[in-house]
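Hi,

I'm pasting everything inline rather than attaching a file, because the server keeps stripping attachments. The sequence lines come first, and each chain or strand is labelled.
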Amino acid sequence: MNPINTTNTTFLRIQAIVKADFLLRFRRTSTLLLFVVMCGLAYLVLPDPTSGRTFMKTGSQRVFYSSDAVAVGTVAQFSGIFIALFGFYMLGSTIRRDVDTRTGFVLAATSMRSWEYIAGKFVGNIVFLLALTVGYVAAMMIMYLMRGEEALKPFVFLKIYFLCSFPSIIFVSVMAIVFETIPFLAGKIGNVVYFFVWAAIMTVPAAMGDTDRVRDDEKEQKPIQVLKNEVSWVSYLDATGLAYCIGQVKEQTGSNNFSMGNSPFDASKPPVYMGSIGVPAKWVLPRFVSTVFAMPLLLIALAAFHRFDPVRLKASARQDRRNIIAALNIWLKPISKAVQSLWAVVGVIPVRWTFARSVAAEALMTLSLYPVSIIVWIAITGASLLTPSDSFHGAVLPIIFCVLTVLLADIAIRERSKGMTALLFTTPLLRIHFVWWKFASALVLTFVFLAIPLCRLLLLNVSEGASLAIGGIFLTACAVGMGVMTGTTKTFIGLTMMFFYVVMDSHGQPPEFDFAGWYGTATTSVRGMYLLLTSGVLLVAQVVYAWRLRQRF
Amino acid sequence: MLNIQSVTKRFASGVVGVDALSLTVDKGVIGLLGPNGAGKTTLIQMIATVTKPTSGSITFNDVDVLKTPDYMRSRLGFLPQDFGVYDNLTALEFLTYFAALKGVHDKRRIMELLELVNLHSVAHRIASTFSGGMRQRLGIAQALVNDPDVLIVDEPTAGLDPEERIRLRNVLSDIGGGKIVILSTHIVSDIEAIATHIAVMAHSRLLAYATPEELLSSASGAVWEAVVSSEDFERLRTTLKVSNAVRKPDGVHIRVLSPERPMNNASQAEPNLEDAFLFTLNYRSAA
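And the predicted assembly:
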């Protein structure tokens, strides 16, 4: 064999990590699907104005479809929701992958520095999200070619998307690593905690940065020159770019009364033309600080990084088990004995009803695994019986659905994550009917939690009760479907929390958002729509599962 | 030369993984033998600089590995236990990745290694579709990519079929010359033909460190053969250290480890490495 030369340069090592992460991510079928979804998203975000809908309006007037307007009107949703929220869940657990494959031990035995590894993962995250952004901007420009009302200015799109999305990409890339290296934030709890971090970073700069907010009755009368549109200190934390976009739109339209997002407009009024969107001097520093303010958190990640030391890995696992819910589960383990007595129910089911026995066993297994859920069930039952009607709808029902989200999140991936799939497949019927088995057992749990609220609603109003039941079925199908398709709890928790946020923010208007009768506005067609969506999710999950089964077993 | 002096690893739980172990290792294939839980993996992880000992010292070529881990790391090839591969990388990409992390950017070297481990024909296949043996061979290739002076492989034959085990053994034997190769296993046949030295560990301690011949001679006179009835065998195997038993028409042929003649009809037998290992485990205290 030839003698070898080694060159240990930081750049080449970081490049290797970035390249490996890029290849791993871009060869996943899910990434391909993501690009398809993004193209669909671009189609929905930029509606044809002849359809009576627009992407942005001031008052009831639509905005003229220029490159500046379209870019600034669509980037906030993309960087604020797609990158800042979904991006976190899409980045996945790249350090965990090195632990699970035990390649981390090999990495630890090389002269690679810990900071080089963290830097490689960080840049890898940036590259992935940047590639998604480039894909989305391309899709948006194609949509603009179809629907724009003047010539395409590609550099305008690139400039505005860069200004808003890049800080968002940096922020999410940092947070993904920080959350993964800090043991108690690395699991399901971290996924939920991040949602609140996102909600804060998305809404606070936009809300507090709105320094010239005026009362509703003043909105129409306020002359353009009075709008100060000053840059607030919170705009320095505007990672999603929402405050910047709002500021720019306000400056261009001279109005506080505008909305971004697909919505109807008054076609009888002429469109409002927005001028060129730039980076005024007062916004340069806030945009720069918004880009870099999260980066020092990488030092925390570096300090918390275990460098695959088995002792620190074990300590991390112990610390992970010390998170509040895990600690409560351990503390409340004796309660599982109460569930043990319910196992007799499984014995009562005739042997020939194998599937029903498996469903009951799986539901009981979940309750045994999470004894804290029994305490929560008691609390929910009490609250469902005692709270007044207003609080029951607006507070108790959302809390029950949040609890169910956490409880059901890992039900479809439990065996996969513990390497027990092959063992499971030796049980009659479960190999073929895995999706339906998981769905049925999750549904049992859902209705255990919804039983009392459902009875209360049915006594008050049958249609609201039906909405609640259908909402429960829909949530269960999503938990199982997304678990089967993604193999992680992140997607389900992230999407569901955001959906709940939108639902609660909408207060049941339009009725399409009242998926579980929280606001009593759901109609029969809305209920039908959610049943249809439930069927769709389960069908797709079954197809994906069957395809994987054929590939792997 | 690798010098391990009074190395102890105590975990936070209070469990001692390795207890005051001293060992000096020179070039050759060192078989690290011991039952599960003996402390082999912990010792290996300390040598590989993955984890630090609680006390003691490890030096390589008189350089303190604990103070200067990079000295060891740049001369080390490591294949951990249950080594896995990434889902969507080909064998070539996988090896190129580890080569880059070890500072090797010579594509010829990577292809040569794939040839050495007989994976060159599947270099562009996704590594996660490989069999267990192929994955282990890929693991060996990544461990060798920087032409290490010290190669450490932890339980490399676990889960492999007999044919793959022989193939892997041959690869390790071929590359053993001029390097320190530490091969951890609990299966004696894995190292029988290739080890120049054998270290036996049990209960976190080193019981013996010797050449195979020395280990065999230590069990000389302590291995006995006898033919017993099935009923006697059931009784004897609970009271004696039976290293092997084969049922034949005339009864059960047993090999027994005992410093003294265990029964009247027992005759002395030549010890093999398995006998010597079991004898060391059962009749020797820490070295």
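Chain B touches chain A at residues 11-12, 42, 45, 48-52, 70, 73-74, 76, 78-89, 93, 96-98, 100-106, 108-109, 112, 116, 142-143, 146-147 (CB under 8 Å).

If the labels don't parse on your end, tell me and I'll reformat.
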